[in-house]
Structures
1.
Amino acid sequence: MSTDVMSVDVMNTESNTPVFSVDGLWKVFGPKADRIPADPELSSLTPAELRTRTGCTAAVRDVSFDVRKGEVFVVMGLSGSGKSTLVRCLTRLIEPTAGTIAIDGEDVRAMDKSRLRELRRHRAAMVFQHFGLLPHRTVLDNVAYGLEIQGMGKAERRRRAAEVVAKVGLEGMEQRKPAQLSGGQRQRVGLARALAVDPQVLLFDEPFSALDPLIRRDMQEEVVRLHREEGRTMVFITHDLSEALKLGDRIALMRDGQVVQLGTPEEIVGSPADDYVREFVRDVPREQVMTVRTAMRAGDCGGIEHPGALAADAVVAEAIKVVARSRKAACVVENGRCLGVVDHERLLDVVAGTELRKEAV
Ligand SMILES: Nc1ncnc2c1ncn2[C@@H]1O[C@H](COP(=O)(O)OP(=O)(O)OP(=O)(O)O)[C@@H](O)[C@H]1O
Ligand SMILES: [Mg+2]
């Protein structure tokens, strides 16, 4: 039995190794930026005070987080909150002012030029909002570009590029030029180009914000599908809350360079850390985010026949349909075991946000 426990431990440790590990990260723009993180008086000033006193902007202020293997990690916040600066610091497209960054345990700030190049080309590929395609090259050659830089032979890179082009749904368009594509198709090329180098992690800086809503939804579904099929780690910047909730396994919500809350969509919507977050998520339809695991009355149903069975991570909106149809409570099931029961009262409490108050009584 002890070996079983050990092997489970080893597996957990492996799958829990963060891809990125960020600790105490600062990026300050302006004169003598280096002194600010180290100076307790200056570093505790509000952004406006700091600007008046020193002429500096602290775009990222003392941020720490891990990006876990296989997750979609969303960085969300209003314009100017520091999202792009933070994500660019991860591969030192912007030089951090202070703090540590590791990828797979390797110190990114200690990397020399060639190691950094390798990091950006092979390990952490970026997808930008404005595609950055080469206008005179075909779709296929744009996708193959990163492989060409890597020194892969022509036949091999064309084969690989064709595979990825098909994967993002652009089959048949290989020979077109970017100008002959719609915005959504161009972004698919951008995505394919990043995927072609088979990076360990994909970094997206608001890739879909220039797309119209229907195409944007298509692309979001594409990301969800790629993630589900390949389990690739992704860091995704957005200022759009519904996009964040849809894509994120976890969300870091930024304000003025700081992370004000880091949690699952359910944690952020269900237990906002402060008034700012509460205001931010106020209009989110809770039934589409909260799960039946939160809504249920915990405990085995004791073998009572419940016509409905729901997975523990099903959202409340799904449960409402099941309960409404059967007019009976439903079991919440995980690994074939009943974890608890949801009835209409429980579900309505979650929709209304009154379940927490009840728990507290
Ligand atoms: N090169 C720079 N020099 C000085 N200040 C900068 C520089 N780049 C960014 N900033 C400032 O840092 C802050 C964070 O900018 P950043 O671009 O990271 O925000 P963002 O959250 O990505 O915003 P958006 O949603 O508009 O893209 C802003 O106040 C911005 O003006
Ligand atoms: Mg930005």
Note: The mean pLDDT is 89.
2.
Amino acid sequence: MANVLVTGATGFTGQYVVRRLVEAGHRVTAFVREGSRRTPLEGLAEGFVVGNLDDSRSLGQALEGRDALVNVASLGFGHAQAIVDAVDRAGIGRAIYFSTTSLFTTLPAATKSVRQQAEDVVRGSTVPWTIVRPTMIYGDPGDRNLIKLIRWVDRWKVVPVFGPGTYRLQPVHADDLAQAVVAALGCEVAAGQAYNLSGGTALSYNELVDLIGELLGRRPRRVHLPVSVSLIAVDLARRIPLAPRFSREQVLRLNEDKTFSHEEAARDLGYRPITLREGLAREVAMHREGAG
Ligand SMILES: NC(=O)c1ccc[n+]([C@@H]2O[C@H](COP(=O)([O-])OP(=O)(O)OC[C@H]3O[C@@H](n4cnc5c(N)ncnc54)[C@H](OP(=O)(O)O)[C@@H]3O)[C@@H](O)[C@H]2O)c1
């Protein structure tokens, strides 16, 4: 069993990853920032090392004596080169890096080239690497994604949909990602590979709204706004205190296909994500408990 350093361990997905690594018998140390909220990891992680990915040396020191790194923290902030340099210098046995399927967006998103460069840097590492690319992550009311829609549908009868709502998406449960990470760590074939990790169900945004309504016992009425009107609406909303915040990019991304095959992960990692109905039912139940 490996001695694993996990970055981003205090984040939403990181907590699932730490739990699954510990369950699999690995010894986990969390690389945390000064002031990070460690409480969710207490009793799980064997220890904490304080550092910051802005400071490559702190990561290098934290990697001393480790067998592996699981870098859950985002590669989208320009840290990739510093992380990979620290990993290569430390000469650990294995590294897993989180990327994102948003890399494949057809939009001219500013983050796209940063993400692509980050993956290129990882591919140049001398330490056996695996890249995992989640789609939109959900799992419990901490997810910052589907929980927003769950809360909205629970509260309001009308759901605004930016565009026709027919483009499909494939959200992934954080626990499926965590299991994939554990599998990749112990899988030689996974070294030098990048895997798209999508969820068990691909569906349109309209179907997603309806599914959430069904699980909540509500009948939401979808009101479609043309994309051009939606863009004006999100700009205006930014000027209204307490109005829901959406970015222009979010509106545009709802109007492109966001489904990705996870066939390669199924083949190499035995990846079998749960259905969205199953995962959402759990999240809706947690939402209800929290609200109740
Ligand atoms: N959320 C999604 O839908 C989604 C979709 C596709 C891919 N991804 C990727 O999946 C991964 C996990 O996403 P998430 O949403 O679960 O993450 P998250 O909740 O936003 O957590 C981010 C984590 O990174 C840590 N972190 C941030 N900056 C740091 C720095 N300079 N030094 C050290 N640690 C730092 C944070 O620590 P603190 O506790 O100190 O803040 C936190 O633990 C990320 O790589 C993300 O890009 C996410």
Note: The mean pLDDT is 95.
